[in-house]
Amino acid sequence: MKTNFFLFALVVLACCQLSLSQRSTKKPTTKKPSKTAKPGKSTERPGPSKLSCDQSTPLKFSSLGTDKDLLANPERGYYHHHEIKLSKYSKLSDEEMKKWAKEGVTLALMIFNIEPFVKKPLSDDTLKNIAADFGALRKGGMKGIVRFSYNQTDIKGDPDKYNFPKTTDAEKSQLLSHIKQLATIFKDNVDVINVVQIGFIGHWGEWYYSRNYATEKKGEGWKPDKKQQADRDEIVKALMQAVPKSRMLQIRYPSAKMRLYGNENLKPGGDRTSERARLGIHNDCFLAKGGDEGTFETENNKEAAQRKWLEQEGLSVMVSGESCQKNDKTGCTEAKKQIEKQRFTYLNTDFKETVIKEWRNDKCYNYIGNKIGYRFELVKGSLQSTVKKGASFCLSLDIKNSGVAPLYNERPLEIILRDQKTKQSKSVKPIPYQPKVDPRSFLPGKTTSIQVTVQVPSELSPSQYDVILNLPDGSPSLKDEPKYRILFANGGKVHDKVNRFNIIGQITVQ
């Protein structure tokens, strides 16, 4: 969607000084530039003009709260389940996505059922249809949680009593060939991919019921033998190569990641491109009994350790899923507690229906929907009231992430000046030597303090300007699309809902 006015972005990749931990009250110090200074360190370098922040005035912001309407933001929140039967293809409906958008939903679980190709390559028409669904997501302002599965049978009763056929999955050589065919699809549509779930193996792509990659043992369930485990590992590695490094993948069980990459937790803000740093978890039996129905291993006291591991791991990789059974643990009290402990970024609003109904009836559905994932709030700040053309002005902000998880996919933070009279802004280059602010570093429950200097172009007309904080999508194809911008969880006059800008204050250019 294009804005209904002629808008040039005044972009400043902020900021001069950044604390990536809790809010700091220390005054910034001035240091000489160092050739060895590392990115992200508070190193002030010569700017285009001298700067004085003495005339800054306080900014105050109000919070939206978490129990009101859902605040729709990209790459987080509730999702709708959408199965694509490629044997009888029907493209994702524009009308359906419009309905989802009205609910505050920005995500769709795109499960591509490739059962017809269990013993042969994906056809050209099938690849075109898969690409068409990604195009539909882009048109609808949505992003996809992507999974491929060879069997989506709706099993009545106990799945353990279902006689799974040999063709539940493709054999390894065929499966790896399918992944190679899909690599171009992933690359061409990475902008509308939120995350890719490993899938492929087992019924529903959930890595359990499988004749090719697991062995059923009486009293022990379905577990891989040594060769099957090696095949699983090879499939994970193949998907890591096929999916662009800018996107994470998810695997069904914490133990599966631990077997591949060890038990040590990632450090928030550290490595983001290795296989280990790109693999999250999808818990598809959230709040179920028996260690969330096997999500966590219950034997030998492993469950507590795995739950503790996930609480820390979720600060670096995406965690999400759905409920699968109603019990005495699925009510609001435990749900609120566990979305925070497990660092949930998104949840299925379609399943399990009885659990979702309970949350709606007990008035915690909106709370959960607003808390999962990131939730950025402006707490306070300061801004100069006037500035001369060609000079620089100061802006400081305290930003709190009141959600239960970080933002995972990269996106910039920009400052825009927009003339209040003409609704236009003048385009200039970012101020040189300014370290980049990475919104992914805004950790849940923490407040981050940022300080920004913005140079006003000498040719800018004297007028009153809105100072706008903008977090656009990180992909060039979606950067100017309002639906993919992040709105802060603030009331008052912060929201420009049409353009999805955050107006933090005004400044007069003299």
Automatic annotation (TrEMBL):
Stored InterPro entries: DUF4832, DUF4874
Span list, region Disordered: 24-59
Domain DUF4832: 278-490
Alphabetized UniProt keyword annotations: Signal
Keyword Signal: yes
UniProt keyword DNA damage, yes or no: no
Composition-biased stretches (Basic residues): 24-35
DUF4874 domain mapped to chain residues: 73-255
Pfam families reported for this sequence: DUF4832, DUF4874
Signal peptide: 1-21
Superkingdom in the source lineage: Eukaryota
Organism, scientific name: Daphnia pulex (Water flea)
The name this protein goes by in its record: DUF4832 domain-containing protein
